[in-house]
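Appendix B, example 12.
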Amino acid sequence: MSTNLPKVAWIGLGIMGSPMSENLIKAGYSVTGYTLEQDKLDRLAAAGGTAAGSLAEAVRDADVIVTMVPASPQVEAIAYGPDGILENARSGALLIDMSSITPQTSVDLAKAAQEKGIRVLDAPVSGGEAGAVEAVLSIMVGGEQADFDAAKPLFEALGKTIVLCGPHGSGQTVKAANQLIVAVNIQACAEAVVFLEKSGVDLKAALDVLNGGLAGSTVLTRKKDNFLNRDFKPGFRIDLHHKDMGIVTDAARSVGAVLPVGAVVAQLVAGLRAQGDGGLDHSALLRAVERLSGSPVA
């Protein structure tokens, strides 16, 4: 291990957190991890990391603490309280929250951390499981320029597009916009797939040519095979996109932005979840369109 790299504590080893933490290990970082599932800790240890027995143990000696958990309640649960990050991290540590949460939660966390001498960046990501594995994530950051500069080498081990978007909470605001665009894009692709299939067109050929023109997108590139194979193994779960659509619609209301299409897609995501598909990949929006169109749902 290179001794001049900061010691990293990684909290949250799910679909995104596990491959991201492993990319830091590959880049030479010393990574101590904590999560609730033993098999995820075993995976980290097998990759060359250290499994901690508690959150407090994981963060105690860390220079940088990275959190990657599902939503605002989980961020608050690991940050606050006697066993939380703020009580157990050393003064001067840098806390990088890479979860997708409400902008206000990020602002509040930064303020509470400042009182403990802990610096904070909100740094949510886009790119899904594939982007995490390939270390090509887009990372949108909120916080101070100096802290962003300090974290840049670490971010470069995780992603390709790394941008400071403004003060605390700005990263989360941009992530909310990202999730709006992705959901509307997946919905449009899903509607096109059902339209094409009902019209008797060769779906693979159609999606290939569409993706080569103005209708092409990263969403279509990444999700084309999901549509073709009806493979909805989660890279990013409907449950999480439902949470994110709640964040963007609430935040938009608070700033006076009107999201008519986004609101409809938010309801379609909620409907899919109500049908029991919350654990599937967000490309499963196709199933909702199939149900509405009277097509058989695989």
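The mean pLDDT is 97. The two ends are 48 Å apart (CA to CA).
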